[in-house]
Design goal:
single chain; Peroxisomal Thiolase, Chain A, domain 1; 2 domains; 11-stranded mixed β-sheet; 14 helices; 15 strands; EC 2.3.1.-; Beta-ketoacyl-[acyl-carrier-protein] synthase family protein
Length: about 400
């Protein structure tokens, strides 16, 4: 199977704006969760927010005004990824450039704001920009418009697996000669009172209002839910042979992708982890490698009781030699963007031969018997897996190599 190279990375996350800022923060092992003034008075009053994001400075006042934060994040990350890949969007064959973005909800802040205007002031107060700023497809549309891409353009929505699924779809487009370059990833900006309240009502969020930095605790015996986050992760993907031909360096290669549905429950994973394992086995089979060769797993690791236990059981069984981490312990759970952000982190881990810490791990759940990086770990490995699972039983697994 022809491999696909990750030639560019762009990141806008709670760990910072820019890929280098993200890696620098990951090396510290310091969580980004903090009190969020927008959530004052709610049962959960903290989140992981993108720091120092000046949309006017990064995009210009007029364009920034036209976009919901979800599209702002996506566009800034996409532009960074393109520059990192050494490509010029003004000069490429736009018809051969695809855009595939994962997102759960699109313009969440715009929707809440405009619903408030309708309720308080009537239909005449609703902005004519409401739909262009809110509709989930516009996340990919904005990237296509402002990055000169006229090839396939789409948004993938598979809940918290959306970003990873988008990368898998982009890889398929490349391998089926539907494009020569793919801008792929995920974006989300749903750290709003409505969505935080919804997740809180479901019992999936940590309630550690007095200790936000200690709230995201994947695989810990003291975990009590995940922490909401926002941001975007965008990758430039090319066929590895094409990247070599133009002298581009690659962060990593995507060797295999697997996807599956649990067909079990709207929110809970299959109790035996069948869907997750099936997706991982697909990814390994595509690459024709044995799971025992995988040296690192960037886990979904959300910090919820049931999900972490089931995921750890499957990891220990299928990837016995791997060192596992959950970067959600540092950056929170960015929903539809999470898988793309974590795919970028996995590629960076392969480049740097280092694994970020799983913060707040102690005490590790005694029922979770896998090797988890409790601190930033320099090591040597050639193959890594990134897991993403979502409501509705969606599973996506990416297998990457140096």
């Amino acid at each position: 199977m022809t491999s696909v190279a990750v030639t560019g990375i762009g990141l806008v996350t709670p760990a910072g704006v820019g890929a280098q800022a993200n890696w620098d923060r990951l090396t510290t092992g310091v969580p980004t969760a903090a009190t969020d003034v927008r959530l004052a008075g709610l049962p959960v009053q903290f989140s992981c927010q993108v720091p120092d994001f000046d949309a006017d400075a990064l995009l210009g006042n007029r364009l920034a005004w036209q976009l919901d934060p979800v599209a702002q994040f996506a566009l800034v990350a996409a532009r960074e990824a393109i520059a990192d890949a050494g490509l010029d969007a003004a000069a490429w064959d736009a018809s051969r450039v695809a855009v595939v973005v994962g997102s759960c909800v699109g313009g969440a802040r715009t929707a809440a704001e405009q619903a408030g205007k309708l309720r308080e002031d009537g239909p005449g107060a609703v902005s004519a920009m409401f739909l262009p700023k809110h509709l989930v497809n516009m996340v990919a549309g904005i990237v296509s418009i402002h990055c000169n891409a006229t090839g396939p353009s789409m948004v993938i929505s598979t809940a918290c697996a959306s970003g990873s699924t988008a990368i898998a779809v982009a890889r398929d487009l490349l391998l089926n000669d539907r494009c020569d370059i793919a801008i792929a990833g995920g974006a989300e900006a749903a750290t709003s009172p409505l969505y935080v309240s919804g997740f809180a009502r479901m019992g999936t969020l940590s309630r550690r209002n007095d200790d936000p930095a200690g709230a995201s605790r994947p695989f810990s015996a003291e975990r009590d839910g995940f922490v909401m986050a926002e941001g975007a992760g965008m990758l430039v993907l090319e066929r590895a042979a094409d990247a070599r031909a133009r002298g581009a360096s690659a962060w990593a290669r995507v060797l295999g992708c697997g996807s599956s549905a649990d067909s079990h429950h709207v929110t809970s994973p299959h109790p035996e982890g069948r869907g997750a394992r099936a997706a991982a086995e697909q990814a390994c089979a595509q690459a024709d490698i044995s799971p025992s060769e995988v040296g690192h797993v960037n886990a979904h690791g959300s910090g919820t009781k049931l999900s972490d236990t089931i995921e750890a059981r499957y990891i220990g069984d299928l990837f016995p030699s791997a060192i596992t981490t959950s970067t959600k312990s540092l950056t929170g759970h960015a929903l539809g963007a999470a898988g793309a952000i974590e795919a970028a982190y996995t590629a960076m881990s392969l480049r740097h031969q280092a694994i970020p810490a799983t913060a707040n791990l102690a005490p590790q759940d005694p029922e979770i018997d896998i090797d988890i990086a409790a601190e930033f770990t320099k090591t040597s490995f050639e193959l890594a897996v990134s897991n993403s699972f979502g409501f509705g039983g969606h599973n996506a697994v990416l297998l990457m190599a140096q």
